[in-house]
Amino acid sequence: MDEYNKVMMVAVDTLRANHLGCYGHDQETSPFIDQLADEGTYFEKCYASDVPTPSSFTSFLCGSRGLENGIIGFNDEWSDFRPTSRPLPERFAGSGYRTGMISNLPYSTPWLIRGFHDIHPPGLAFQAGSATEVTEEARRWLRNHGNDNFFLFVHYWDPHVPYDLAPEEYKEMFSPGDYSESSPDMEVFEENEWLKAVYKGHHSKTGTPEKPEKVMSLYDSEIRYTDSEIENLFGALQELGIDEETLVVLFSDHGEAFGEYGFWDHHSCYNNISRVPLIFWSRDSNWEGPIEEYVQHLDVYPTVLKMAGLSRTGGTDGKNLLPLLEGSGNGREEVVVNTDSTVIQRMYVKNDYALVHTPLRPIRKHIDEFEFFDLEEDPDQLKDISEEKEGLVEKYRLELQDWLSDYLDGSLDLLHKSAVKGCSGLNWYQEALSENPDLAFDDKEFMREFINQYGEAAWLVGEERITSKEDMEAYGPRNE
Ligand SMILES: [Zn+2]
């Protein structure tokens, strides 16, 4: 196929790459997705440029980083959104394609409706709508528009918390006992009563089991359920006889943590969150694969435009991946990921080493401001080796600094701005504690602890000078 005039983006929220068979999982979570990866191809080292959900989807659809488009976390609003390139659906709509969105993202990130002719949010609420309902909406849309030139964005939420929504038949396929070796040891929580309290509060609030083995088995049941619904969705392409003309890109906005290194949900830049599946599928493709080069979400933007025969617009930092698919060309030398969600963190990955900078890290006292990991030996990033690799750490720090100077070109580093204000998502900590009457902390003490942490971060970024507890109390909570 020279040029595709039907493009379907399948987003599976919260899908951790190594929980798919094709990415090496030892549980049978993804027979259909594995088949797609086999018939098409997949990128082994694809990283989001921004996490979590709002910033990830914004960067994906705009082909630009949050540092540039203005969306870096949960606190950003419509007025912060200033893309330098037209969002992908707008590009397709402007070229005569019918554009459809089957997602309830408009409830959280309303700026992402730009360019869509039809918007169908399954369940009519944020994070609502089961995989079955998403597929039904998408199939209905395809029946109406599948014979036009189209760009369709279909978004499944199921692997996201709460984890127990898959039908019973899928839950029965996975047993907690099979995860005893792969589940995290939770040692960090035993050494940090604050972290343990927030962890317990979050799990009690969301009705989620605390044992990682149980969480992982339920999480996998939701992937398996979504996998079968994606198969059902593909059935529509065949029924309409358009499967040979359609390009499909399957991806996730971020992964998930189950307690590793003191994290749960998806609030960091570490590999288990920022390394995401990316699969390209076309019925008659003859692509290379799997592709081991580093790539990032924002590279999909120029790639699908190219594959649809539409000219590339300015303003994207994405790299066209078509040469890589065809067996030539290179990926990226390094990847950079940012997050603003319960921590403020940036990760720089190159040659299988990761430098992680965390200027703001409330409660997580086990994390140093700069950490260094060997991703080949330690893909879960449990062992900071910065002391034994001092020279390399310095080299990576300088490289990251150069990268930032080039990229920002004098403009403000939005992560620093957010660090001074207090990062997004901290209200969940407070909610988690107040929702749990068994916990012995009151809100005032809790906020004081945060102010301590803000003070440290503010000092670190040099924007505010807070050196005593009195200063911190006068400074006041940042998250009101
Ligand atoms: Zn998400």
UniProtKB/TrEMBL annotation:
- All copies of the Sulfatase N-terminal domain together span 7-309
Matching entries from Pfam families are given as: Sulfatase
Which SUPFAM superfamilies does this entry report, sorted A to Z? Alkaline phosphatase-like
Q: What PANTHER family does the entry give? A: SULFATASE, SULFATASE N-TERMINAL DOMAIN-CONTAINING PROTEIN
- Give the protein name, as stated in the record: Sulfatase N-terminal domain-containing protein
Which species is this UniProt entry from?
A: candidate division MSBL1 archaeon SCGC-AAA259O05
